[in-house]
What we know:
Layout: H1 9-12, E1 45-47, E2 51-56, E3 59-65, E4 75-80, E5 88-89, E6 93-96, E7 105-110, H2 111-117, E8 131-132, E9 136-145, E10 149-157, E11 162-163, E12 168-170, E13 183-185, E14 189-202, E15 209-217, E16 226-227, E17 232-235, E18 247-250, H3 262-272, E19 275-278, H4 289-294, E20 298-301, E21 308-309, E22 327-330, H5 335-342, E23 351-358, E24 363-375, E25 379-382, E26 385-388, E27 395-407, E28 413-420, E29 423-428, E30 434-436, E31 439-444, E32 451-452, E33 456-462, E34 467-473, E35 479-481, E36 486-490, E37 514-515, H6 519-529, H7 538-544, E38 552-553
Parallel strand pairs: 19-31, 23-36
Antiparallel strand pairs: 1-2, 2-7, 3-4, 4-6, 5-7, 8-13, 9-10, 10-12, 11-13, 14-15, 14-18, 15-17, 16-18, 19-35, 20-21, 20-22, 23-24, 24-27, 25-26, 25-34, 27-28, 28-29, 30-31, 31-32, 33-34, 37-38
Protein name: Vacuolar protein sorting-associated protein 62
InterPro entries: Vps62 (IPR009291)
Amino acid sequence: xxxxxxxxxxxxxxxxxxxxxxxxxxxxxxxxxxxxxxxxxxxxxxxxxxxxxxxxxxxxxxxxxxxxxxxxxxxxxxxxxxxxxxxxxxxxxxxxxxxxxxxxxxxxxxxxxxxxxxxxxxxxxxxxxxxxxxxxxxxxxxxxxxxxxxxxxxxxxxxxxxxxxxxxxxxxxxxxxxxxxxxxxxxxxxxxxxxxxxxxxxxxxxxxxxxxxxxxxxxxxxxxxxxxxxxxxxxxxxxxxxxxxxxxxxxxxxxxxxxxxxxxxxxxxxxxxxxxxxxxxxxxxxxxxxxxxxxxxxxxxxxxxxxxxxxxxxxxxxxxxxxxxxxxxxxxxxxxxxxxxxxxxxxxxxxxxxxxxxxxxxxxxxxxxxxxxxxxxxxxxxxxxxxxxxxxxxxxxxxxxxxxxxxxxxxxxxxxxxxxxxxxxxxxxxxxxxxxxxxxxxxxxxxxxxxxxxxxxxxxxxxxxxxxxxxxxxxxxxxxxxxxxxxxxxxxxxxxxxxxxxxxxxxxxxxxxxxxxxxxxxxxxxxxxxxxxxxxxxxxxxxxxxxxxxxxxxxxxxxxxxxxxxxxxx
Length: 570
């Protein structure tokens, strides 16, 4: 897995080192409030069953490698600082030098062993404690620099039946002491995978490459128990089909006691709720679902030619089951009524909120859904030329969302997810724009309503050829303050009856009709505008654009999306 016993950068890597300044710690613009009282939310520690963990965000710098050449700016390796008595390190932290210091690692203690030390008795003899020291360490990589000193990365070899959670880094060749960290009993862990590569360095003498990644649980979603420790993984070889030597923690406490209660949820939304800005030229604005129903939206069935008016609560919509496309929602037949509905009604618009546990209940995901009655046609960008389409990309009923990820240890906003059509991306809180206190800004793109953290033009297609769907995002007078205009529609972990889900949330069929039209005729016009040396066949052009552009199909509602139960798609 690790490729070799030790790699020496000074002899094998074609990089130079330069002086650097350590990243400064990041903090939110405003202090956190005093959250309403509850059980375990924002108490600073969390019980995962046999293990209790604390989130450490203060670090001691051990060693930095800073690259003069290449895209990477280098990284710094950190030891967690200020570990309380009776708690133990599980691994070290690493992050790029061109970002604010913003991360965490979990430290742990064995709650069962602690109870025994305090004089509590058990019926059975404690044979295998939750935490044990490693047997010894293996040196997996080292580097030498006149300016930055030496760096050594060690893998802790766990006892039989235990798993390592991360690596140890030193600035000398002396093997770390076993007391430096703890390994975790295997049944209290879950498999993890690499994500977000932090560092990559090529070798002059071989095709191998030393790489450093962040880690996350393989299985993620509101029903999953994997807990990210915050450590890193490094190797000169990585087989995607091979299980990593390190693992993440597993939350075996099904009570999810660190999740916020209803009062705390409202306080979180009121404190962190973003302001959503729509483009100044937007003509397809959002509305509330009730406004959409009241103003003429119709329910159709494949066996009937005439649509049925929908009760403003959605009580006459079919509920449950799967989307078999037997039902769909459409605009009224009258042209004026159709155009009225297409334009939306931003005064009535509100954010529909789904609150759920993330990463084994160590974080809370606050998914905020916005509804627009109509998604406008796309604009295709070809180099410096932008061409507005007549039909490509348009559809009735548009559900888009963004998600706030909040630490259940502190109640701090950690990340925000921005949904961008068929995918999206997580953005650290340090890279968000804030409009008032700790409330971020979300920019909704013109006509398509995908979400972005900053204003600008975003291309969905081929950046290599500068051809794709253009998404423009900018601030305007059209905006929604989600900290005041929201409705909590689901929070399953609170239990039955705490949140009354609206009728329309149970509607699993299409929120718009399926219309297939000739995209080829519109794309033929594009080909004629292309310079000769970048002309493509129509088939090749199709490969550059999202598949949803080639027909008009209304989306399903929030509960039919993969991220309702699962993690966000990136």
